[in-house]
Write a structure and sequence with these properties.
By secondary structure, this protein is mainly beta. It is built from five helices and 23 strands. The chain has one domain. Strands 1, 2, 3, 4, 5, 17, 18, 19 and 20 form a nine-stranded antiparallel beta sheet that branches. The longest helix is centred in the last third of the chain and has 10 residues.
C-alpha cells in the first residue's frame, strides 16, 4: 500500500498516540463484519470475528500458532506458512512467514534507484545476505518518513499517530518504536549515539504491549477498515525475535497469486496478534510486497513483487561464535 494517496492525511495528523485503554471488546462491533478461519484438526476453525475482536493480544492464539509448520532456513532463521480463509467472498490467503533472531544477524538498509526511479527488488539480494524484504512505505520515488543509515539521519520523521519505526541500535539490537517514542530516538541520532539505522512505516496495527490502536477499533477514525489488499507486516515477538508476514492470494498460477487482494487492516492486526506479536506495523504491500531467503545450500526461496521499491531491509548472518 503506497502512501501516495495518504500523504495529505498524514500531514494533517497530529503526532501523538492515544493511551491504551481498557476498552470493552464490544467496541469491536463497530468493525465491518468479517471472520477468519484456519484449518486445524482436519476442519476449518473460525478463530476471529470482527463482532467480538479483542482489543489487545497478550499471547499467541493456540489454534493459529499451532497451524504454522516452521522449517529451518539456517541457524536463527525459519520460514513458515499459514493458510487462512475469510467469509462472504470465500477468499483464501496464504501468509508467508519468516522468523529471525536478530542476535544471529546484522541488519542493514539498502537502497537502489535508476534515473531517480526506485529500482530495488529481491533480484538485488547482496552476496552472502540471508534475507531481504522491501522496507517501509513510499511516496512518489522516495521512502516515506524517518530514515537513518549508518548513524546519519537522511530524512526527518513523517507525522501521524499510527506511524512506527524499526530501530537498530549501535549494538545491533532491534526494536519497533511507537510514534511517541521517535522524537527521543531522533535526539540520540543528532547526538551521535544510539541509532545505527531506522525506517518509519504506517500504519501501526499493534502498539504498546499488543494493543490494537484506537483507530482500528471502529469506522470513521482515519483508517479505511474495509479495503482488502495483499499485506506485508513486520513485528517484534515477545522473545525478541522479528516476524515478517507476507500475504498471497491463493489463486490459479503465479500471476494470480500476486494479485493485490487479501486481509483488511483489522484482519491483519488480528493475524499478527494471533501469531504472538507485541508491536507490529505494516510495510508497503500491494504490488510492492516481496521477500527472499537464502539457505546455506540450495536455491533461493523467493516471493517476488510486481514493482521495484526505494528501500529494503537486509540481514547478513553473523560469524559463528
Amino acid at each position: 500500500m503506497s502512501l501516495r494517496s495518504g500523504a495529505r492525511a498524514l500531514a494533517r495528523a497530529p503526532l501523538f498516540i492515544l493511551p491504551a485503554l481498557a476498552l470493552p471488546t464490544a467496541l469491536a462491533a463497530q468493525l465491518p463484519s468479517s471472520a477468519l478461519s484456519v484449518r486445524a484438526g482436519g476442519r476449518e476453525v473460525v478463530w476471529w470475528r470482527s463482532q467480538s475482536a479483542p482489543t489487545a493480544w497478550h499471547a499467541p492464539d493456540p489454534v493459529v500458532a499451532g497451524a504454522v509448520r516452521w522449517t529451518a532456513v539456517r541457524p536463527g532463521l525459519e520460514r513458515g506458512r499459514l493458510d487462512l480463509s475469510g467469509e462472504h467472498v470465500g477468499w483464501r490467503v496464504a501468509v508467508i512467514l519468516a522468523r529471525l533472531d536478530p542476535a544471529r544477524f546484522t541488519l542493514r538498509l539498502d537502497t537502489a534507484a535508476i534515473d531517480g526511479d526506485p529500482d530495488w527488488s529481491i533480484d538485488r539480494l547482496p552476496a552472502g545476505a540471508a534475507l531481504a524484504v522491501n522496507a517501509g512505505q513510499f511516496t512518489g520515488d522516495r521512502a516515506w518518513g524517518w530514515l537513518v543509515m549508518d548513524g546519519r539521519e537522511l530524512q526527518p520523521p513523517g507525522f501521524g499517530p499510527l506511524s512506527s519505526a524499526l530501530v537498530i541500535d549501535a549494538a545491533g539490537h532491534v526494536s519497533i518504536a511507537d510514534a511517541a517514542e521517535i522524537p527521543a530516538l531522533r535526539a540520540g541520532v543528532r547526538a551521535g549515539e544510539g541509532v545505527r539505522a531506522a525506517f518509519q512505516s504506517y500504519p501501526a496495527v499493534l502498539v504498546g504491549e499488543g494493543e490494537a490502536p484506537e483507530q482500528l477499533r471502529g469506522a470513521g477514525r482515519g483508517i479505511d477498515l474495509q479495503h482488502r489488499d495483499s499485506r506485508l507486516g513486520l513485528c517484534t515477538l515477545r522473545d525478541g525475535r522479528l516476524l515478517l508476514a507476507l500475504t498471497r492470494f491463493v489463486g490459479l498460477g503465479d500471476v494470480l497469486n500476486r494479485l493485490p487482494f487479501g486481509p483488511t487492516t483489522p484482519e491483519m492486526a488480528a493475524i499478527l496478534g494471533a501469531l504472538g506479536c507485541r508491536r507490529a506495523v505494516l510495510l508497503d504491500g500491494g504490488l510492492s510486497g516481496q521477500l527472499v531467503l537464502r539457505p546455506p545450500r540450495g536455491p533461493l526461496v523467493r516471493y517476488p513483487g510486481l514493482r521495484a521499491v526505494p528501500l529494503a531491509l537486509v540481514a547478513w548472518p553473523n560469524p559463528d561464535p
